[in-house]
């Protein structure tokens, strides 16, 4: 089975770009929708792992990459 690592960009402190309606940042949008993406990938036969960059020890993009790479 193929494995896919999913990483939500940014963080609660740095939400990223904000939609023009000011309702969602990149972080809040993907936090709300990542479960649907994961479910669809699993329905298609993938193993989908949602990665949290803080699990790798920090909040910068390098930690996101390390956590995703650790998934294999």
Question: Strands, helices and their partners?
Answer:
Blueprint (H helix, E strand, L loop, with lengths): L2 E5 L18 H18 L3 E5 L9 H11 L1
Parallel strand pairs: 1-2
Structure description:
The model has no long low-confidence stretch (mean pLDDT 86). This protein starts with a strand and ends with a helix. α1 (26-43) links the parallel β1 (3-7) and β2. A two-stranded parallel sheet has the order 1-2. It contains two helices and two strands. It has one domain (3-71). The chain has helices at 26-43, 61-71; strands spanning 3-7, 47-51.
Q: Keywords, please?
A:
alpha+beta; two-stranded parallel ribbon; 72 residues; 2 helices; single chain
Percent range for β-strand residues = 5-15%
The secondary-structure element order is EHEH
The end-to-end span amounts to 12 Å
Tell me the count of domains: 1
Q: Briefly note the structural class of the backbone.
A: alpha+beta
Tally of strands: 2
Instruction: Name the average pLDDT.
Output: 86
Lateral arrangement of strands in the main beta sheet: 1-2
Please work out how many helical segments DSSP would assign: 2
- Integer-rounded radius of gyration: 13 Å
Task: State the low-pLDDT regions, or none.
Answer: none
| Spatial shape | flat
Largest sheet: 2 strands, parallel
Residues in helices, as a percent range:
40-55%
In short:
With 72 residues, the protein is an alpha+beta fold.
């Amino acid at each position: 089975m193929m494995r896919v690592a999913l990483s939500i960009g940014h963080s609660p402190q740095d939400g990223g770009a904000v939609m023009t309606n000011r309702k969602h940042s990149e972080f809040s949008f993907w936090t709300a929708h990542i479960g649907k993406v994961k479910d669809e990938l699993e329905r298609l036969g993938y193993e989908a792992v949602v990665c949290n960059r803080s699990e790798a020890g920090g909040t910068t993009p390098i930690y996101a990459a390390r956590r995703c790479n650790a998934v294999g």
